[in-house]
Amino acid sequence: MLEVLKQLPADPILGLSTAFKQDTNPKKVDLGVGVYKDEQGRTPILSSVAKAQKILLANEESKTYITPQGVPGYISGMLELLLGKGHKTLIEERVAAVQAPGGCGALRILSELLNRCNGELTVWVSDPTWANHIPLIGSAGLKIETYPYFDKDQAGIRFDDMVACLEKVNKGDVVLLHGCCHNPTGADLTKEQWHKVLELAQQREFLPFLDIAYQGFGDGIEDDVYGLRLLADNLPELIVAASCSKNFGLYRERVGLAAMVTTNRNVRDAIQTQIQSIARGIYSMPPSYGGALVDIILNSDELKNEWLGEVSDMRERMQTLRRLLVSKLKDKGASKDFEFINSQKGMFSYLCISPEQVQQMRNDYSIYFVDSSRVNIAGISTSNVDYIADALTAIL
Ligand code: LMR
């Protein structure tokens, strides 16, 4: 029976790591999967996380199941990080939430919840969006459409086109928005643009679905949730998928959060049971480890401050690397103006070159990044930036 299924092509993002590992060119550069790297190309365990691991090891007394909702201190800590301490939706007990296996787990169970609410609704995603959004949301059986977001020729957001599209979205449809550090383009909405999105959500009565996987990597922990908090302050309902993979460096521990702002406490209670039953039907209950570490960090003033410092260091390093790449490209006389890289935010930048040029970078120079021209800025270092800039200048 199993032979009826065909071999699939490599994943557009994860497949790059396999190809990179097999490449024997000593000059090869990995700008593919979104993982933070230091100057030496390593992804070290954050110092705050290493300390939390010691505390957990010394105190954990059992490996029995945790509750289906997840680690309580993790959930409350994350909700405060996202919404702000004492946010009215928290005081009014209107937020349902579960710890999920990574941001992907959160996206999937929230999509299943939407399907339970209304299997006919459409989820609108940005064009382009993160490659895995479509399979994650589509596998839950929901229809997906795109709204215009980024103009590769102008290297900027097509906000007027986005607004024109969202003006036609049906009541009850869902609009997926990237909370910050848009993946793959690095192009984020301004504060004014977030206000316009709020106005559209109020007029059209669509439900915003925020995916926030890079809080702290754009402008800062608080600044990066401007849009999320604006919507949570002013809309009756909101759904949020958050990830701790990047800002806590907990990639392999799979730690995320699915949160739903509801209209009142009774709805919250009902939704809480629904989301837990969805999780029970897929993976039963979340792994504890990553959530337990984040709980320890967010609920200790000392460790939280240390972690905030580490997030700032990662953010500032990526901002420095952006400036370095742009100035090298200028110095080398690149025929394209790459200044836009400096205004993009977070871990990714869209180089706005063609898929053929991306292939040429891979084939001729062993520089690996996603076909869309998305590069992981954290993969750049002072030792490879000249090589990258020379290659880009040459292929242009
Ligand atoms: C990425 O976008 O590269 C990361 O979020 C890793 C992934 O799962 O695709």
From TrEMBL:
UniProt cross-references to InterPro entries, sorted A to Z: Aminotransferase_I/II_large, Asp_trans, NHTrfase_class1_PyrdxlP-BS, PyrdxlP-dep_Trfase, PyrdxlP-dep_Trfase_major, PyrdxlP-dep_Trfase_small
Essential cofactor(s): pyridoxal 5'-phosphate
EC number: 2.6.1.-
Domain Aminotransferase class I/classII large: 27-392
GO terms for MF: transaminase activity
One Pfam family of this chain: Aminotran_1_2
SUPFAM superfamilies assigned to the protein according to its UniProt record, in alphabetical order: PLP-dependent transferases
First-level EC class: transferase
Description of how the protein assembles with itself and partners: Homodimer.
Protein name: Aminotransferase
Organism, scientific name: Lacimicrobium alkaliphilum
Name of encoding gene: aspC
